[in-house]
From TrEMBL:
SUPFAM superfamilies: NAD(P)-binding Rossmann-fold domains. Keywords: NADP, Oxidoreductase. Belongs to the short-chain dehydrogenases/reductases (SDR) family. Gene3D superfamilies: NAD(P)-binding Rossmann-like Domain. This is Uncharacterized protein.
């Protein structure tokens, strides 16, 4: 009997000790691990520091968190199909909740309709987010206001 349990751990943050261990294990690839949310800290209008994302960083975040996980699962499917009890456990972020989206947002409506939700619809949401980001219309289109790419990537996996 083949047992194939795959654990995909995704964390909202790393403590200093964890980063030190990761730097030793993966010195060049540490920031490419699942769960890393590319962003930068910049001063806002009030002069305080805030986390912001450019289009390029948002695209990178979705590539790592959403598409990276999706590709990993697709790649492991043949192995899982050999198992009598195939299991994938995806530990994600508390930010990946529908409540992170405004109540009237299109994406929240699509993701809430679990009976009709398909992989194609989730992919469409991710692509629409990037399109709206590029247009500069995230807020007017009902996307999360802060850490949008991270939230979309985590919710899309949920």
């Amino acid at each position: 009997m083949t047992q194939a349990d795959i654990f995909n751990r995704q964390y909202t943050g790393w403590n200093t000790s964890a980063l030190q261990v990761l730097e030793k294990l993966f010195p060049k690839d540490c920031r490419r691990l699942p769960g890393f949310s590319p962003s930068k800290v910049v001063p806002n209008e009030q002069g305080t520091k805030t986390v912001t994302q450019t289009y390029e960083l948002a695209k990178e975040c979705l590539q790592i968190n959403y598409y990276g996980t999706k590709i990993t699962v697709e790649s492991l499917m043949p192995l899982l199909q050999l198992s009598d009890s195939p299991t994938i456990v995806n530990l994600s972020s508390f930010l990946g909740q529908l409540e992170s989206f405004p109540k009237e947002s299109w994406a929240r409506g699509v993701l809430s309709d679990v009976d009709n939700l398909t992989e194609e619809k989730v992919d469409e949401i991710v692509k629409k987010f990037l399109s709206d980001f590029k247009e500069g219309s995230l807020e007017s289109k009902g996307w999360p206001r802060y850490l949008g790419a991270y939230i979309v990537s985590k919710t899309a996996l949920g």
